[in-house]
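How a chain folds remains the central question behind the approach discussed here. No coordinates are needed to read the tokens, only the vocabulary itself. For completeness, the protein is quoted in full, as a sequence line and a line of structure tokens:
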Amino acid sequence: MSKNQKLLDKLRSNPSNIRWTELEKLLISLGYVLKQGKGSRVKFLHPDYGLISLHTPHPGPIVDTGAIKDVITKLQENGIEL
């Protein structure tokens, strides 16, 4: 099983335990480009699927479950199987 598939499985099965670095790697591997915004705002832009806008977690590395649900919804809308 590839690292990307493991991250997709983790995203699907345990969204309350996703680290920012894992989410960033996954989105980049799916073709998204990281665009740093102001402050903690980060945008991931895909040429075909559009934009995912998130806040980087702070002070800890774990991404908010609400943000994970938004990412899952956006990926599913774009036909990415989770």
